[in-house]
Amino acid sequence: MSGKRVLTEPEIETVFRRLSEAMPGRTVTAKGPKDQPDPFRSVVSCILSAQSRDANTRKAVDQLFALGRTPDQILALPEDEIAAAIKPCGLYNMKTKSLKKLCAVLIEEHDRKVPQTREGLMDLPGVGRKCADIVMSFTFDADVIAVDTHVHRVCNRIGLTDAKTADQTARQIEENAPEWAMRDGHFWLIQFGKAVCVSRKPKCGTCPVNDLCLFYSATAAA
Ligand code: SF4
Question: In this protein, which residues make up the domain named HhH-GPD (predicted)?
C-alpha cells in the first residue's frame, strides 16, 4: 500500500486527462438524468430524487407538474394530492412537506425565482450541497463538479479526495481538481463510475488509471 490518502497534484491532473480521453463530457451527455431546463422543476426534481431511482423520480415529477407548474400552484394543492402524485419516488409524506416549504419560501423570500448561486440554493428548504450543485451544473450551466454516489465512490477510490461523505468529496474535489476539469469533470466521473469503476467488482484490470489508483494499489498489495 502506498500510504498516500490523496494523489499529488500532477497525478490528479493525469487522472482527469485520461478520464477526459476515455469518457464522454458535458456536450455528449448534456441531458443528464436530472436535467431539467426550468429551474423550479429542477429543484423540485432534485428534492424528489432523494433515495429514488431516476425513472421513479421522473414519473413523480411528471405527475406533480401535471397538477401545477409554479410555486403558487403547487402550494395551493392539498397535501394528499401532492403525496399521491409523487408516490413513485418514495418518502412521499416527508417530500410533500418539503415541497410545500420550498414553494412558500420561494414565494415569500425570492419573488418566485430560484436563486442562481450555490449558497442561495442551499438556503432553500430540502436543498443540500449535492442538489444545489446539480442545479448549478445542469440548469445554470455552471462549471461545478456535482457529487452523487458514483462520483463520490470514484473520487475516493482513486485518491482524488479522501472523504467520508459526498458533501466532503464535493468540497475537496473543488480544491483538488484542475480548473480545466471543472466543466466536464462530473460527466467523466459519473460515466466512469457507471461503466468501469462500478460499485461491485470494478474493472480494475482494464482501467485506464489503475497505475495511479490508490484503491487498486492497496488491494494489489493486500
Ligand atoms: S483501478 Fe479499479 S478501483 Fe481504481 S479507478 Fe480503476 S476501476 Fe476503480
Answer: 48-195
